[in-house]
Amino acid sequence: MIRAASICDFYQSSDSATAAAVAAPFGASMERPTHASDGTGARDWHIPVMVAESQAALLLKPNARVVDATFGLGGHASAFLNILGQDGRLLGLDRDERALSLATTKFINEPRVQLCKARFSEIAEQVAAHAAFFGADALDAIFFDLGVSSLQLDDTERGFSFQRDAALDLRMSRDERVPSAADVVNTMDEEALANVIYQYGEEHASRRVARAIVEARQRARIARTLELAEIVKKAVPYSRADAGRIHPATRTFQALRIYVNGELDELNVGLDAALELLAPGGRLAVLSYHSLEDRIVKLKFRDAETRGFAILTKKPLVPGDSEIAENPRSRSARLRAIERPAVARPVSKNKYAHLAISRDDRGEELKS
Ligand SMILES: C[S@@+](CC[C@H](N)C(=O)[O-])C[C@H]1O[C@@H](n2cnc3c(N)ncnc32)[C@H](O)[C@@H]1O
Q1: CB of 319 closer than 6 angstroms to any ligand 1 atom
Q2: Which of 261, 278, 313 is the C-terminal boundary of a domain?
Q3: Is residue 366 part of a domain?
Q4: Which residue, among 217, 216, 366, 342, has the nearest Cα to 283 in the 3D structure?
Q5: Which tens digit of pLDDT belongs to each residue from 3-45?
Q6: Fewer CB within 10 Å, N side or C side of the chain?
């Protein structure tokens, strides 16, 4: 069995019975259309997005030390492991205990992998705790595949999808003692709710939606996804721009998910830490799925550029038509990558420093 470091006491998860139950169908292929036999309705598979592009962006070498900060069911990690040799090491993190429980079963005989339940904001302490596993305290590659997995979307107990009836929960981890989406919509005051829906969902009708939610909860507690979706649908004016493109509740559910899980704060802290953890020449690649995430990644990378990092994707890479046709969930994906300079550059307070040609100690030009 793969042994985790002492701070990863995840393996005693109460979900281990579920993991064992799905061990057989959870084979080599991530695309096998099976369902976990635990009554949640969840698929025990997830089609990883832009795998070849992510691999190429990370420039993995056989002995690379890698962190996959969003391990999920290990779809990307499986592909990365094909490149890593016997000396390669991969630490997989995820805040979702259920995903990790299933993944543990899959990677049980893989000594190059360790899995730990952790949030992005805990990445530095996780890497420090795994210095012996890595044989180093800096990394060659770090990968983030943001958002939710198919496992989460299909789980009827978590309410990530407003297309199916489920408890209005939206927490990525039940262990983290944070309020569920139902707690938020039933208790938050109207103005704060409107601000959350506007800020994290970019919903222009946020005030109307908040008003409708407050009116509805005065009649009865809003407990189910379909109830909330119906309330939002009635409140959002029919818009030609969005007609047929996205469900009227998309933005509100996105906002609640981001708020409940503190996703943007997590991303901000996690990216700062990840950039620091890279060894010279190490690479960070991030797949994001909506503009709020992508904007954070873009700004972090621009800021790192002023410290000598090289942005490898001036424009984000997007999936090809065939991938979108095969996996519609990939359609909003944006991949950005950055590399830590192999030779340290002097830190400059001049925000335009990255536009100037810089020279190292020997007076040689440094290329970006
Ligand atoms: C899109 S899925 C990753 C799928 C994975 N690449 C695969 O191929 O199976 C995103 C995963 O990131 C996890 N996640 C999201 N935010 C996180 C955070 N702040 N800290 C740790 N894990 C997070 C989710 O629980 C989810 O399992």
Answers
A1: no
A2: 261
A3: no
A4: 342
A5: 443 346 443 333 433 333 333 222 223 333 344 444 444 555 6
A6: N
